[in-house]
Write a structure and sequence with these properties.
alpha/beta; 13-stranded parallel β-sheet; 21% strand
Length: 408
């Protein structure tokens, strides 16, 4: 009798399981790594065999990535209407430039053909916009000759949607801090559930009050420049939202800095709905405000804080962590010009041991990073690892902020 183990084939799996694998394959492919726009390499799976092509096509063709003008032109020339209408998620590199309307024609004319491609995606609900890095459109000279009487300008959203914009559920900007965006200049935010902003955010021309976002549940601010958010609280910028998650990352040395009044507005307006709070690169938050905010978030389950201390660490905010919290990440560093607050940091360490590692019910995941001196004194690091091992807590000791900065 042959006892050699039989090699299982992918197509021997149940079709329901294969469909789940196709979905996960696409999710992994869509991940943004090192601020790089994903490619269309996921389509290669459709060329492995006919059966996989038939099964995976409805899943994989929901997503497309247009990295430059040549890909846009190829899509316009070769994609049939049946394929265009399948696209629900698009990643695009937006040139952002338009020929401004003249005296006889007030409509802006986008320099790129991206708006034509987006207009054909009638089922589009999720859009991520990346920095255009592939140079000028290939038909620039012909375009210039057609619009000699016009001047070239930057209208970030109008370059994608000069007329009618779809009702997006997800809108993410992965652009450089120097890129200017007139927020919701063309897009309507009423259907947005998830929003990620970066770049220099300004209000659209003539807009005095921010537009309501009644469906908004998830908000990320990463590498924001300009003073739009400096002049408003979070709830003023996004009226009507009911946030379940909020993530902030400084992302740029001259970027918008989250301050105490922003944190106060988060706790006051979204205290009963906020379940996830991520704050990275914060140097303008007082420990007292952090404590007060945490006490006002009874349903918070995930909290990550990268705190840059300057001259204040009076309140031990670890003692104010909500009872439903299951994931806690903390990294504390000193500003290079500030005096080290070792005693205050030592108090945070003591509180982590008693109020976090030994808490019932226990935490699911804990990440901490303090100066080496604090972690080695009195065998603190070894003691924490032993406690975590005995209680089944997933404990990570060391820097985690840069990794998470890339993830959001």
């Amino acid at each position: 009798m042959d006892s050699t183990p039989q090699q299982s084939d992918f197509l021997d799996l149940p079709v329901e399981l294969r469909l789940v694998i196709y979905e996960q394959f696409l999710v992994d492919h869509q991940q943004v790594r090192r601020k790089t726009q994903p490619s269309n390499a996921h389509i290669r799976l459709l060329y492995t065999c006919r059966q996989i092509a038939q099964e995976a096509a409805p899943v994989l063709r929901r997503y497309i990535s247009l990295l430059h003008e040549r890909q846009i032109q190829t899509f316009l020339l070769h994609a049939p209407p049946s394929l265009c209408t399948q696209v629900e998620w698009a990643d695009v590199a937006n040139d952002g430039r338009v020929f401004r309307g003249g005296e006889t024609d007030q409509e802006d004319k986008p320099l790129s053909s991206l708006h034509v491609a987006l207009d054909r995606m009638t089922a589009l609900r999720r859009l991520r916009v990346f920095q255009c890095r592939q140079g000028l459109p290939i038909n620039l000279q012909n375009t210039m000759s057609l619009h000699r009487s016009r001047r070239l300008g930057l209208r970030f959203e109008r370059a994608m949607f000069p007329r009618n914009a779809p009702a997006l559920q997800m809108y993410e900007l992965h652009i450089s801090p120097e890129t200017r965006v007139e927020l919701f200049d063309a897009l309507s935010p009423r259907a947005l559930v998830a929003l990620r902003l970066s770049g220099e955010i300004v209000a659209p021309p003539g807009e005095r009050n921010p537009m309501p976002v009644p469906a908004l549940r998830h908000l990320t601010l990463h590498g924001i420049t300009g003073n739009f958010f400096d002049r408003h609280t979070v709830d003023e910028c996004f009226p009507g939202a009911r946030l379940q998650s909020f993530a902030y990352a400084l992302g740029h040395r001259l970027g918008f800095e989250l301050r105490n009044h922003h944190l106060d507005s988060l706790a006051a307006v979204y205290g009963n709905s906020l379940r996830e709070l991520v704050l990275l690169g914060c140097s303008r938050l007082s420990s007292t405000n952090i404590s007060r905010c945490l006490e006002s978030l009874p349903v918070l389950e995930y909290f990550a804080l990268h705190l840059v201390t300057v001259d204040e660490l009076r309140s031990n905010f670890v003692l104010s962590l909500p009872p439903k919290l299951t994931v806690f990440k903390l990294q504390v560093i000193n500003a290079w010009y500030a005096i080290a607050l070792k005693e205050e940091e030592r108090g945070l360490c003591d509180a982590i041991e008693t109020a976090v590692l030994l808490r019932e019910p226990r935490y699911r995941h804990v990440c901490v990073c303090f100066r080496t001196q604090l972690m080695t004194e009195d065998g603190r690091r070894d003691r924490w690892e032993n406690i975590a091992r005995d209680r089944g807590v997933n404990l990570e000791i060391g820097p985690w902020e840069s990794r998470m900065m890339d993830e959001i």
